[in-house]
Amino acid sequence: MKIKQIVILGGGTAGWLAANHLAKKLNLPNGINVTLVESPNIPTIGVGEGTVPAMRESLKYLGIDEGDFIKRCDATFKQSIKFVNWTHDPAAHGNHYYHHLFDYPLINQFNSTPYWLNKHCQLSYAETVAVQGKICDLGLAPKMVTDPQYQGTTAYAYHLDAAKFSQMLTENAVDKLGVIHIKDDVTDVILHTDGSIKALVTQQNGNIFGDVFIDCSGFNSLLMGEKLGIDFVDKSDILFADHALAIQVPYQNVSQPIASHTISTAQQAGWIWDIGLTERRGVGHVYSSNHTSHEQAERDLRDYLGSEFDNISTRRIKMHIGYRAKFWHKNCVALGLSQGFVEPLEATGLLVFDATARMLAEQFPMEHAEMPLAEKRFNQRIRQTWDRVIDFIKLHYCISKRRDSAFWRDNTDPRSIPDSLQENLEYWRFKIPTEYDFHNKLSIFNLDNYLYVLYGMEFETSSQNQQFQYQDVDGYRAWLKELANYRDHLSKTLPEHRVLIDKIKKYGIQSV
Domain range spanning residue 371? Predict the structure, then answer.
């Protein structure tokens, strides 16, 4: 029996990313039809406005014009995450930061990591392996207006308005890729005798039948959770942040500079994100309700913003930290918040939603007989993906040297650190991480990500036993000089971030 009909329940960014990827791969002549059903009465939950460079590749793959995307989605460029006050207590050590850059560390050109560990210079780690940190600090863009679409001098992703992005994905899926869009409320779900899903019952459109159903219904998980009874695996014992306060802050004037990176500032019981779009900033406080009160979390956010924004209200979001015990069960697949969620520290939401939707499209079964095998493989791989994401997010907390609040102290308790992460950290105290430590392509975060965070946060790796391998100190100094010259060149040639955005809004971006 051929699979002919996919039904997606729920819109929002996750639902429409799934619709685009599935239709792009499968909705061809004599292929599989894709229908998306979403309620006109349920608002979507915004899970962040930041992306990673993989989103750039997805937009290009889906045939979306980059200039049009920037104009319509209030989008700006993102080259890094700037972590402020994550390593030490600022009251004792002053304000400090490090960059998790999107440019790969240039360790294949010259492996400067062991020389940096041996304190052969006073530069930050990022400055010894890349040039992008200064580009961010100067407020410069990653490309010129004359650069072709999706190409730049440095690697980049985007900040975007999530609601406007969902609308653009909707139009791309419906108008270009043939997705059927139904706005209706689902009142019930009909099952087959074997427990698989037969149809969605809607108020206005009757029964909507399908061969495979994709659950993008948010934290409620109406299909996978409520109807099929797949348990939620809670991970709040590892990642403590379980709430977020979000606020939209207008610029004081239209020419105000726009940061080309996300700013993540550590707090007593969490952290504050600060994202610059073209017309406003998206700011939010992610925090642990077991380590602070909602009222104190709001006061901390207000203190960060300043009194001039006291008249703007915040929106509180309760986050369910963890993932489903299964991501594919019989003929139902969970994507988006229905599948899992952790705090949006490294833009994990859109990153995992996009990656798993594309993975599903690439490995989608063509016949019902394939389904059990596809289910087993999908569940194994996505479980690994979520576990490695959780390891990486926990890394930011458990290697911090902050001890100024219970939140930071509790994050260093070995009982809250996954065994897999503890084993890696113990190994990396003696050996610098290499690509052989990241053999799983589904890990999402790999060597470059770990290097920036580990050594941005002053993780100590002993290189005493390996010093005989790294005697080229003169070569190291020459490498730093080469990087400095290139950094200075780019600082004089790349445009200011807002200037580039204004030009793109006026002229677009050339497609060739």
Answer: 5-74+158-233+320-386
